[in-house]
Structure prediction request, 497 residues.
Amino acid sequence: LQITITNATQYLVMGLFYIIVTKTNALTEADIGALSILTFLSTTFILITDLALPTALTKFTSENLGKNQPQEAASVVRTITKTVVALSLACYITAILLSQQLSRYLFGTPAYAPLIILILIHAFLSTIITLCKSTLQALYLFGKIAILTITFIGISRAIGATLAMLHMGLSGVVVGFLAGSIIALSAALIFARGKLPKPTHNTPLKPILIFSLPLFMSNLTLLVLNWADIMIVRFITLDYSLTGIYYLIINSVSVLSILWIPITTTIFPALSARYGLKKPEHVTEIIKTSSRYLIYIILPSCISLATISSTALTFFYGPIYTIGALAFSILSVATIIIAFYSLLTTALTAIGKTNQVLKINFISAASAVIALLTLVPFLQIIGAAIARLATQMISLTLAIYVLRKYVKVKLDKESLWKSVVASTPTIPFLIILESPLTTKTSTIQTLTIEILVATSIYLLGLYALRALKSQDFELLRQSFPKSLSKYINIIEKVIVR
Prediction:
């Protein structure tokens, strides 16, 4: 529940940012397309310059602290920090010198060179913030990590949206991102200061790099999986407006990750512990139980969102964005597959099969590029969405195949068929509501009616099928504050038969 609230807060702030800048026309679709390219550049810079060393910092620092060797832990932090800062500065200086060439290549004009420099300063500061977060993670200071994350997102989006509405446009957004990173870095340095003793020596870098480089390669494949479709849409269509609409759709669909990230995050240590105790049958049961709640939550959410995509886009961003409705529907369906893929790769990571995850990601990334280059020239953003759906299907198939070599993979079949049966009737009702209501009622009224109808039909279906059991509500009582237990009990008495 805590993880869900934290993630929901982040997505709420980011969602409000895009709603504000689109509804007020502070950013055009072309501006959002250009912002997506700048964000890609920033993400790539961070990935290349940190070499996955922040993860290594957490691992080796926490290990040394566990051995009661704070001096060794401090030396790990200093060695990794010096390495990342030196590499980042070298890459940043190089990028500044090449900023005009980068601007011409990415945007077709040197006019974006100042924005490239600003976004790379933001990326450089973000890298240092990540190192501080890794140190705090090794010290189990998760509350301070949450504060840093929300501070950056809140301040950067607030300043960016305000400056954009003051007619600074894309430049204002980038300045907002930079301001947020400066303030977050100040807080990060204060939080991390004095938590470890002053190091007396440097830790050898080689064993750290041996650990981090496979993770770095895996991160590269994830970069391709997450950004290939956006970049290929940009370079094949040469249409920033279309790129901006597609980028906005992907960001909107990614909000659904708050439905499965809390589950995968929570079960990770449990899976590791059970597998370490040589009890693979417990791993199987954890996967099955997790899949039960994942199915009941993710399936109706994605199916309903796919059906009302046009109304949702109109409500949040405006009617001009409904050009992406079909792509939005396809990506909503793909999200169901992503959720289950995340569950299975969490299991693979927990049992130590990270090399297998890297292989899956590599095959998926190659498949994504091939599919995109085949489909985007003909179908544009619809082709990009289909390619992403196909790639996720390949990834899920490979994950199931690989995980079955180590543990028995079981999904909760009962919840699957009951959720499908309960969700299916919502589709024709929503299709009927989409057509006539959009001309007779406001968008907010239409969306409200659709949500209420879909929720009512789904819950009624679960009740008729006797889908929910007493143990499901017991889990809710454990997750929610005790003050809400009496309300959960009332709901249980009504639903459980």
Observations:
- The mean pLDDT is 89.
- The chain is about 85% helix and 0% strand.
